[in-house]
Design a protein that fits this description.
Elements: H1 2-14, H2 22-31, H3 36-46, H4 50-59, H5 73-83, H6 88-95, H7 99-108, E1 119-121, H8 122-129, H9 133-141, E2 148-149, E3 162-165, H10 166-175, H11 187-199
Antiparallel strand pairs: 1-3, 2-3
Helix pairs in contact: 3-4, 6-7, 8-9, 10-11
Length: 200
């Protein structure tokens, strides 16, 4: 019994702490909605414990920001500029607000999402479909998601390597909608993309 306990103590001592990256922090900032349920989801997504995420959120000051933060005139102007070019998650990350706050503000201010000239990077597609970028790269490699290489490739799996035309993304969504069931898709963006096709 003493040996087993000693082994357990040894294992606990060897356990390493999670090293938080800027990408982790951005993900927390965008997806934390103030609830315990969201902490559990974030922990599962990042592969860490509930209390690790809870502590990190507190250190980032996100748990103390329970009150609504008003949108200044400058914030509104910046939001108007960004929603015309980028998906909701990118806008939320850029403005340092939650995804829910940004979506709510877009509705209240009567703004419309409009992305750049009908194409997306693989990173943006991953955000819209609620998947890892590797998932998007696999679909491109197998030919189910049509994409074209753009510019000089600095690293093989970079989010900017591929340019995906809106019509190809729309077709992928329509043909593979079943793969998106249960995922944290950006519903506003998906509806917008599909609706653009119906308007043609």
């Amino acid at each position: 019994m003493a040996v087993k306990r000693q082994n357990l103590v040894g294992l606990l001592k060897k356990r390493t702490k999670h090293k938080w990256t800027p990408e982790d922090d951005s993900y927390l900032r965008v997806n934390f909605d103030g609830s315990h349920a969201s902490i559990s989801k974030l922990a599962a997504f990042l592969g860490v414990g509930f209390y690790a995420v809870d502590t990190r959120l507190s250190r980032m000051g996100l748990k103390n920001k329970g009150r609504w933060q008003p949108w200044s005139v400058e914030d509104r102007e910046r939001l108007t500029e960004l929603v015309g070019q980028y998906p909701p998650q990118t806008v939320a990350e850029t403005m340092g607000r939650s995804l829910y706050a940004v979506r709510g503000a877009v509705g209240r201010f009567g703004l419309r999402w409009g992305f750049r000239d009908g194409w997306y990077t693989a990173g943006e597609v991953a955000q819209i479909l609620g998947v890892f970028i590797e998932w998007v790269h696999r679909r491109i490699a197998e030919g189910t998601l049509i994409a074209e290489e753009q510019g000089v490739v600095t690293h093989r799996a970079g989010p900017w390597r591929w340019r995906i035309q809106e019509m190809h993304l729309r077709q992928f969504i329509l043909d593979h909608a079943g793969e998106l069931v249960g995922r944290n898709v950006d519903l506003w963006a998906v509806v917008n993309i599909v609706a653009q096709g119906n308007a043609l």
